[in-house]
Amino acid sequence: CGYKNDATAEFTWSRHKGATSSSSTGATNDHTYGTGIGYYMYIETSLPRQPNDKARLITSQYEAVAGGSCLQFFYHMWGVDTGALNVYL
């Protein structure tokens, strides 16, 4: 999908579909299709993760277009001490 993991981050994102191995995490359905056939990006934040560990997805640079552009995405964060989601443009 044009994304890659940042090699300097402490852990990585994975392309996933359906439930995950952690209780109550992951998506039953993806947002695009509304079914279990689509994929989503996932990070496992339980042990051995530590506070301030980071996982980063990087895309290639997008060209500016006349009239502007729009970034739209959907996310879900669940659990104690899940940290923060930052988006840098």
From TrEMBL:
Protein name per its UniProtKB record: MAM domain-containing protein
Source organism, top-level taxon: Eukaryota
Signal peptide location: none
PROSITE patterns: MAM_2 (PS50060)
SUPFAM superfamilies, sorted: Concanavalin A-like lectins/glucanases
Domain MAM: 1-89
GO cellular component terms listed in the entry, alphabetical order: membrane
Annotated source species: Rotaria magnacalcarata
